[in-house]
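User: I'm preparing a small set of examples for a lab meeting where we compare how different chains pack in three dimensions. I only have the primary sequence for this one, and I'd like the structure in token form so I can line it up with the others. Please keep the answer compact; I'll paste it straight into my notes.
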Amino acid sequence: MSIEQLKKDCESDLFFYAQVMFPNRYFGEVHEEMFRFFQRSLEEAMETGQGDNAAALIPRDHQKSFCIAVASSWAITKYPWFTVTYVSSNPTLSERQLTVIKNIFKSDSYRELWPEMLNYEVNPRTKEYDHRSLGTWTKTEITVDHPQRPSSEKDPTVAATSAKSTNTGAHYKMCIFDDLVTNENYRSAAEREDIKEVYQSYASIATTGSIKWMVGTRYGDNDLYSALKEKEYEIFDDEGVVTETRPLWKWFERKVETSKRYDGTGTYVWPRAKMPDGNWYGFNQTELSKKKSEAFNLELYYSQYYNDPNAASEAKITRDCFMYLQPNLLEQRQNRWYYGSKELKLACGMDLAFSEGSGVRKVKRDYTSIAVTAWDNEGYLYVLDLQRFQTAKAEIYYEKLITMHEYWDFREVTVETNAGGAVVANFIQDEIRRAGHTLVVKHQHKNQREGTKEERNSQLFEPLYRNKSVYHTKGGYTRLLEEELHLTKPPHDDLKDAVWIAVSNSKRLAKPKFATNKRERTVVNASNRFLSRRKRA
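Assistant: Understood. Below is the structure token output for the 537-residue chain.
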């Protein structure tokens, strides 16, 4: 292929240009699609003269910032008279992206294809070509030397700036917003409003008919991107009549993988692969699992990797609905459990990881969960203990359940069964009889539930939690239960199912016991159990 043909192909195809500039870079399908998205934006804007706003919301760690820097250099390559302001959340990020653009322009490949873009002079000492810019070339601003750039242009070709910088007096043909929303500026309502002001300020300095590009990662349902999705503008005809209303921004959005369960079992938009230099890039189920395990804020995790904030504003069970008991007040006296002076009536529910008619599930993402709950005589519910595990062995189901029974001494357990689950429930029942335990196993078939899971959860859990009638223990699996209760589409709902089984098959204490001045002898204090469990967790 001739140099002229290669140059022509690069200018007509952004993705091809990226591959030529970075032949050893690992670009996935998501990057190719994103490059095509921004290319269409530029081409439509230049054809119509009306500008365009194009935003890509890509999962964290998917090299979106690098890609938008490459796309910016391509836009300047096609239209050397462009002036571009490159806005990031802080100066370090914007300067880093400007360095990417600089390195592209100064690379041997680029210079061979577009020698007129930068001014080079022969170094008399080394006899090699050195870049000698005729304009600005600093860590925050660069100016290309292309003859098509007007000599009267005062603004640099690219100005790298940040959310806290001033922009008075500047006017740009392109405005690039790169990761405006970050952990640092999303923590409070005031900070979120500040970043909206930053966006508005920089958008206002773009020239009429300008092109705005944006890449980012979601942080919540009330972030900048959510606000921009609601923005629209009107199209008028020659008579001044509104003919159409359009979204202000066009959106390109991708999740880390395609599973609707958000459990990592789908197809990854940037599959993990090893490059010739030995480095690994991209995601697979293990890497995604690590990211989730490291996340303390699961709303943030689902925002950043799935573009699904599951915002508290939409959740009917919000974080402030959760209350926590004091372990030192939970104790057993004469074979009865009390929380302070209030007697508790215990129940246990067990949700088996079984699929209809197939025996034990082979897919490891499904869990069996056990929940121990209790009511007091004032109508408060206590989630006392949670267990979650994976197994294909019937004896493990029995051992996990009996361990909890021997500690809490609940009288009955309700096991949700179907064709496969009944086998395990019967095995547990037989083992209980052989061991001489007094635990009663009740079977509950799935067809006994009325309505969908969402409907029954709404009927049972929402009133209890919104009225702040439920106490949790801290540690153990409580955080995962709260995730299941709070998120609109949690990756698992096993713990919530077990709690639902326990609560829906339990009865509240009818009335309080008469108070007594004589304190019964304490047999077991539960605080030690919770302390040891927190250490294990």
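A couple of notes for your slides: Residues 355-365 have pLDDT under 50 and may be disordered. Residues 507 and 527 are 25 Å apart (CA to CA).

User: Perfect, thanks.
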